[in-house]
Each structure stands twice: as structure tokens, then as C-alpha cells.
Fold:
Amino acid sequence: MSTWSEAGPRTVEQHAAAVAALLPPTGIETVPLAEASGRVLAEDLTAGVALPPFDNSAMDGYAVRAAELAGASEDAPREFPVAADVPAGRTDVPALEPGTVARIMTGAPVPEGADAIVPVERTDAGTERVRIGAAPEPGAFVRRAGEDTTAGAVLLTAGTVLGAPQIGLASAVGRPVLPVRRRPHVLVLSTGSELVAPGDPLEPGQIYESNGTMLAVAVREAGATAEQLSFVPDDVERFRAVLADRVSDGVDLVITSGGVSAGAYEVVKDAMTGHGVEFGKVAMQPGGPQGCGRLELGGATVAVATLPGNPVSALVSFEVFVRPALRAAMGHPAPGRPVVTARLAGELASPAGKRQFRRGVLDAATGTVGEIGSTGSHLIAALARADCLIDLSAETTSVADGQPVAVWLLEA
Ligand code: AMP
Ligand code: MG
Structure:
């Protein structure tokens, strides 16, 4: 079997598959409903009760026997004694005797024997006796038990992403908690002796560290949890020591940035080559130099994805390789970003043989997308103003003004 570097560059799909293979589906945990938002349901949700659980009134009004009002109208009302008062929540509702009606509120149980509700607006609203000027059809304004769902029915299937309506439904059928896929836990580690923490003074030749917090936030936005390790200088021993110290059973993935290209001080590459992690090129731009594998660390192994150091390369690599893998591990039915087609505003040239992800701004009103900034993978200011990535296939060498391009929406 030839190694990645001998075999030549991987396609984006090949490397994406290699990273995804490092992250099997996470286990199932049970969370309170209020914490289930955005999570993926791990087992089918069945109804523990029917909805509605009992026949109840859809209106404030009077529960009646419809047959006793046949022929009644505004001009020819009928009068009945009000035999009971049934607010919502009453649990001891008496049956309705013939020749009587019950005052009833929305959501209250329909008394046995009653088969229709007359809204209060069609009556004189009496409390002892009431005049009713309407002839309801049987079943009028009665919300039938089980008309929304029957008990035992499957309401949501495993793999459903939980949002407000789904969580509302779970509450409605009496579930206080839901089984969801666990969030993967990710360690984020930046390397580079030139890096200084924001807030500290910069010496000439130093830059502020930006990838660590950016990637940790991106991990959390993807729905996983992140722990940011303070960045380490380009020193293989220090780097391995930091990892050995911090990697534990609870870590699903380590993401590094920097130290993987062809320079002389490539700490990530030097520390991991020969220990389960492969490095090579992916035919893409930005983000050519990549690595991934299961790093052997003192008897244990941990999944690692090594991203390039330039901030734009790091974040684009995260979007293309890591985010879909994390979301797939959490059971997301659509782990990738939504992709739409837009017409290019302006024209673009692109190298043959490399898939390019250019930073773009989409104008949804006109369905056009324009590039922001240029191809330089250090241009983080343009990245911060982009709301999409323009995905140019490896075969594409130029796109003319107005031509359709694929666009990954970053703000979905
Ligand atoms: P490297 O891959 O380590 O050679 O880094 C490539 C470029 O990205 C260099 O200009 C680095 O200074 C820069 N870089 C690497 N890591 C970071 C980081 N964590 N934050 C900001 N810039 C970085
Ligand atoms: Mg570096």
C-alpha cells in the first residue's frame, strides 16, 4: 500500500472520507428538553398519550346535546338550565343530564352526553339559565381525543434534528427528556513560535494567535464541545507533552492548526509522522497541506485532523473536512452546509486540477454571488465579511460573469 504522499494529492472527497472515518457515531445520552435544541434524536419518539388526550372544547361556550337545539336560531332561541361549570383542568366533570347544558371553557373536558359546543357569542352568556340562539351540528367545536396523534404512534423518527416544534411535541406527549447523540469533544491546539495571545504586546516578527479561538468557536457552532489548549511553540517535545497531558478518553478529536506544510519547523508533522497520522496534499485551495489519522500516544490513540496554519486555510479546511464529520458523528441527516446555485457577479480564474473555495458574498435578492478579497489564505479580514464559499470544481479554469456557481451558505 502506497502512502498518501507517494500516491499523490487526495481529492477533497477522499480526504473528507478519511476524516469522517475517524469519527464514528457518538453514543446516546439523555438530555432535558430545554437542552435538546439543535441535537439529533437518537431513537424514535413514540406518543405516550393520545393528543388530545380527551375530547375537549375548542371554544369558550356551552356543552350541549345537538339534537335538543334542532331548529333553534337567533330569532328563536331556546333556554336551558346551566347544570355545571367546566373550566379547563376540571377532572371530575359530571355527565350532562338531558335538557341541561354545561358552561365550558376552551380545553376543558366535554361532559359525557354532550356532543357539541356552542360558542358563548351565540348565547346570552347566562350562568344559571342560558338562552342559546344556534343549532350546532353534532361534533361542532369538539376537539376529538386522538385526532392529532394516537397513543403509541411514532411521532418523530431517529435522526430528526430537534427544534422548537419538535421539543414542543415531546412536551405535549409528556416526555421530560429525550435521547440524543452525544456532542463530540474536540481539543483545539495551535502551533507556532510567532504566536502571541491577543491582548499581549507584539514584538516585531510576532502575530496575534487567531486560529485557536476561531476553530473552537466553529466547533461549538457545529454542535460539538471544544477545549482550547494554549498554543505551543514549534518544539516537538513540548508539543507531544502537551498532547499526552491533555488527551483523555473523553476526547473524540484533536484539531491542530499550523506546522504541516513544507517548511523547516513543521512541529505537527514532525511530532506525528510515523505515529499513526498521515500527511500529504489535497487538491484544493486554500487548504492544500493536510493530515489526519489516529495518533498513537502512550498506548492509546486519538483521532487527529491537522489543519494548515493560515487562518483562511484553517477555517475553510474546517468547513470542508471537520464540520461535516462532526455533524455526521452526531447523526445529522444533512451534515454539510446548504449548497445553492448563484450567478457569479464578475469573473474568476481558477487553477486546473484544484478545487477552490473562494470567499463570497451572496445577494439573495438577485441570486448573484461575488468574490470578496482574493485567493490569499492569510486574508482573514475578507473571510470575516464573507457569508458563503464559492465552490469551484477541480476542472474549472474560468467562470464568466453571470455563469452559475455552487455556493456553500455559511450562515445557515
Ligand atoms: P504554518 O503552517 O505553521 O507554516 O503557518 C502558516 C501561516 O499561518 C504562517 O503565516 C503562520 O504565522 C500562520 N499561522 C499559523 N498558526 C496560526 C494561528 N494559530 N493564528 C494565526 N496565524 C497562524
Ligand atoms: Mg507554524
Remarks:
- DSSP finds eight helices and 27 strands in the chain.
- The radius of gyration is 32 Å.
- Residues 81 and 129 are 4 Å apart (CA to CA).
